[in-house]
Design a protein that fits this description.
Order of helices and strands: HEEEHHEEHHHHHEHEEHHEEHHHHHEH
Largest sheet: 6 strands, mixed
Oligomer: single chain
Strand order of the largest sheet: 1-2-6-3-5-4
CATH architecture of the largest domain: 2-Layer Sandwich
Helix content: 40-55%
Shape: globular
Structural class: alpha+beta
CATH topology of the largest domain: Cytochrome Bc1 Complex, Chain A, domain 1
Number of helices: 17
């Protein structure tokens, strides 16, 4: 009886949280195909103007990788009406901040301004779209910036090349096989005309979604959006290519030597389905159960109890076409990578064989409820989520309803999906080891 009352109380409390977190939004299309989403939140005197373009590293040619990420830098160089080097000065002088990020699937730009600068933010994003200056000095400058970023984040960073090595082994046909930062050789070989053609193809209003979120007047916002974006010509429709990977049917084995490390790492990576699928959401629960935090099954068993590893963890890459679930471990003392892999596999087999306990299931649901609340706790987070759910999922209201999908997943589904995707013959085993020069 006591447990029933506690469960009912928890359900009522979580229902109240979910209702309080409901994100209200409006959306419409401009005649040129640009999609617009409004989210009004007067709780703080700030407003976000953001634009997401449906272009990422998967849209690049195999011999011209890195273009999408390069444009994330290049399009801050300036426009016909914003002099080179002035972009950040304008934002700062008006009390704002801005940034951008790129993934395999999309590129996202945003400004956060005081509410009275909404028109400025809209004008700046329209300038980026309509009047970018793509010239040799900008390309040469950003080429050096990107090279330094690659050196810092990949080449000279301990364990910095895990993702590139995993991706190139997990994908043979799909452009996910290269990293978002791309190849410096490809960027060096590219002509100015190729950069300009990339911009013309992908930076069009009909390949973008504009989000305005925060404290603003909708009538004024619509007026300014029409003024600054409405006249931008529609671009040619971007035809997305489809790349189908053959199923992995036997273990892929690979070794990579990293001169920046002294402790080896074992990595087990599984290819997973599109983030838009129900199975991908089930795998999210499995990932959290196994490896999210110090109370997870793998950490508690291998690090805390058996003291076999310095660290155990996982990274889930949810992507538009395929995903990856990457488990990793750093062996400690006399234990080896093989020892860690054996322990990992035992926990996976348990999920495939037995139902997880009711207690663990409730803990998972509570954790995802908490994630849901945190994801929509700031107006900046809401703006990016609105853009992503429209652009990559095709359903803006998932910002409110995706949590219901996680609630509907059963313990039986967790067992069946683990059986479907997390098998030894369906994965990459990567021995990520110190360079022999370091060992000597």
């Amino acid at each position: 009886m006591k447990n029933s009352i506690m469960m009912l109380s928890a359900a009522l409390m979580l229902g109240g949280v979910a209702n309080a977190q409901k994100v209200v939004f409006d959306e419409y299309n401009l005649d040129n195909g640009m999609h617009v989403i409004f989210h009004n939140d007067p709780s703080a005197p700030v407003v976000i103007t953001s634009v997401m373009y449906h272009v990422g590293s998967k849209d690049e040619r195999p011999d011209r990788t890195g273009f999408a990420h390069f444009f994330e830098h290049l399009l801050f160089e300036g426009t016909q009406n914003i002099k080179r080097g002035e972009w950040f000065k304008i934002v700062t002088a008006n009390g704002g901040v801005n940034n951008a990020n790129t993934s395999d699937d999309r590129t996202y730009y945003y400004e956060v301004f005081p509410s009275n600068s909404l028109e400025l933010g809209l004008w700046m994003e329209s300038e980026r779209l309509l009047h970018p200056v793509i010239n040799k000095i900008g390309v040469d400058t950003q080429n050096e910036v990107v090279k330094e970023e690659k050196r810092t984040r990949y080449d000279n960073q301990p364990y910095g090349n895990i993702l590139p090595v995993v991706k190139e082994n997990m994908f043979k046909k799909h452009p996910y096989r290269w990293t978002t930062i791309g190849s410096m050789k490809d960027l060096d070989a590219a002509t100015l005309e190729e950069f300009q053609a990339f911009n013309k193809k992908f930076y069009t209003p009909n390949n973008a979604v504009l989000v305005v979120a925060g404290d603003f007047d909708k009538g004024k916002a619509k007026e300014w959006i029409q003024k600054y974006f409405g006249s931008i010509p529609r671009g040619e429709e971007v035809k997305k290519q489809t790349f189908v990977e053959e199923p992995i049917t036997q273990t892929i084995k690979a070794t990579y030597e990293d001169p920046n490390i002294q402790i080896p790492m074992v990595i087990a990576s599984y290819r997973t389905p599109s983030m838009k699928t129900r199975d991908a959401r089930v795998l999210d629960l499995i990932s959290s159960y196994l490896s999210d935090g110090k109370s997870s099954k793998l950490y508690k068993k291998i690090v805390d109890d058996k003291k076999m590893a310095l660290q155990i963890g996982a990274v889930g890459f949810s992507q538009e076409d395929y995903g990856m679930y990457i488990l990793y471990g750093l062996p400690m003392g006399t234990y080896t990578s093989s020892d860690l892999l054996k322990e990992m596999d035992e926990e996976i087999v348990k999920i495939q064989t037995d139902l997880i306990s009711e207690k663990d299931y409730e803990k998972l649901q509570n954790k995802f409820d908490n994630n849901f609340v945190n994801a929509n706790s700031t107006v900046e987070g809401i703006a990016e989520n609105l853009a992503s759910f429209y652009m990559l999922y095709g359903d803006v209201n998932l910002i409110n309803t995706e949590i219901d999908m996680y609630h509907s997943i059963t313990r039986e589904e967790i067992r069946e999906v683990a059986k479907k995707y997390l098998n030894p013959n369906q994965r990459l085993i990567l021995d990520y080891v110190p360079s022999k020069k370091v060992q000597n």
